[in-house]
Amino acid sequence: MKPVVLQLIDSFAQGGSESQALQLTRLLSESGRFKVHLACLNSKGSLRPTIEDLDLGEIPAFPLTSFYDRNALSQLRRFVHWLKSAHIDVLHTHDFYTNVFGMAAGALARVPVRIASMRETTGMRSSSQRRVQRVAYSIAHHVVANSDAVKDTLITEGIRSEKVTVIYNGLDFRRLDTQVSRPEAFSMLGLPGEIRQRRFISIVANMRHDVKDYPMFLRSARRVLEAVPEAAFLLAGEGELSASLQALAAELGIRNSVFFLGRCQNVAELLRISELCVLSSKAEGFSNAILEYMAAARPVVATDVGGAREVIREGETGYLVASGDDAQMAARLIALLREPAAARRMGDEGRRVVEEKFSCDAQLARTEDLYRRLLRHP
Domains in the chain, ordered, with CATH? Predict the structure, then answer.
């Protein structure tokens, strides 16, 4: 019989961890080498339709309001019962909340293989959350990190090196396929026609956490506009910081050159009209956005945090700048805008790197190998 694998996700909301977990679920299901189940803590979210064609059976939800109330205990009992009844061989969790909830339930249900995940370095968790997550890691058989930088963070926090495996995010190139024309892309993104001749620099990141440091990007944008007035900036992301960022753009005097797109489901079309792409984060694990930028053959200027230097080759596929250094970021963007031929060469090289190292096939192969190895020797 095939081993039975459960992927436990927080929700179906648009986000890097959720997207990667659902992509892995699809890859495992379509490979046919494991029987795959999916469960969640919150059944809501725009990504749910992306997996509805898969034969996953019921997708149970175990909604939490806190780790410290009666509901949490009730949901834990439900999940333990479900794990036993479904005869789960491998439980794989994907973020802070599922790590804590899932590893506790997996231990109580005596799931043979329990795998937690880490996708961030610093800046996202309080000290109490880090302590709770370390307990989850202690009862996991293994931890998957999505970059060497994340693995180093885990080791610093006391996790044994041999207990951690790096599996890079995989990119589905089909997400970036588009046959639409430039004018059609503008229409799909809701952009006014009169700006079509401008030169677009884009950033894709949520606006829920200040760790993404959009203010750095906006300060950099002002510097770029002073040197290249025809530049314009596309910000794709949603969250509670959106209003304050729009106010900052107005305060900086660049509001007419900055376009807030909200949650963007047309990433292929966004990158189709973009000349350069940016990530300004203060901290990251391993950025899906950088992979998408490079797969679309766009040169990248990103802050040197997390696993960025594991994919960006300085001066070959883009540039790395210090976190918070808007002047350095602007200088790199200006140089690329002034040398479009060099920028195109960087973009082409970036796509080649992603095709070689960060494919879905590589992600699937490493994950299945880890599952088989742990099933033999948890």
Answer: 4-170+359-376 (3.40.50.2000), 173-357 (3.40.50.2000)
